[in-house]
């Protein structure tokens, strides 16, 4: 068998000083570390894939559970929102409504000392007062106070007469429209 020969294709003279030699030297030393670092990054990415897949599967399970919870509460939420809307409408109506107790209190403050009311009625937009006055000046003063009262308009004196059964004073009936 013939003797083995070594074949070296790289020239031996001044290889390390030539451009090709410097590049080969850099590739052998630094390039090797670059390849090792790249492989390390690839291995870390491969191993992190298992962790991230597990985390993703857990997130999908959580989303399914939360969707089921939300789906079960849809009917209740719809009922609750409808009730809230109805309550808002009721509040709007109550704010715009003029309460009879307020009108009664304010009109009773307008009464002079010798005028008394025997009947007081409030309908949707109408007000009727029935009473008597012991003097003409008391009735006149009450009428002037009512004309200045800003929550009513279309004031009219429907009936005025002497009191019956020999009682002193003047009976009257006043009607008005309530402003909104």
UniProtKB/TrEMBL annotation:
Keywords: Membrane, Transmembrane, Transmembrane helix
Entry-linked InterPro entries: Extracell_DNA_Util/SecSys_Comp, PilN
Pfam family, any one: PilN
Membrane spanning stretches: 30-52
PANTHER family tied to this protein: DNA UTILIZATION PROTEIN HOFN
Protein name from the UniProt record: Uncharacterized protein
Lineage: Bacteria, Candidatus Shapironibacteriota
């Amino acid at each position: 068998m013939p003797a083995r020969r070594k074949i070296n294709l790289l020239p031996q003279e001044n290889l390390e000083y030539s451009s090709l030699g410097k590049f080969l030297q850099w590739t052998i030393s630094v390039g090797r570390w670059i390849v090792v670092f790249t492989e390390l990054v690839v291995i870390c990415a491969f191993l992190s894939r298992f962790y991230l897949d597990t985390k993703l599967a857990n997130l999908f399970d959580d989303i399914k559970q939360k969707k089921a919870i939300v789906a079960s509460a849809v009917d209740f939420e719809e009922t609750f929102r409808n009730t809230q809307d109805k309550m808002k409408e009721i509040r709007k109506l109550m704010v715009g409504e003029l309460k009879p107790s307020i009108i009664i209190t304010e009109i009773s403050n307008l009464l002079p000392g010798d005028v008394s009311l025997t009947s007081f009625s409030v309908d949707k937009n109408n007000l009727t007062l029935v009473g008597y006055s012991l003097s003409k000046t008391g009735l006149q003063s009450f009428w002037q106070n009512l004309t200045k009262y800003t929550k009513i308009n279309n004031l009219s004196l429907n009936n005025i007469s002497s009191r019956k059964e020999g009682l002193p004073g003047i009976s009257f009936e006043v009607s008005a429209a309530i402003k909104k």
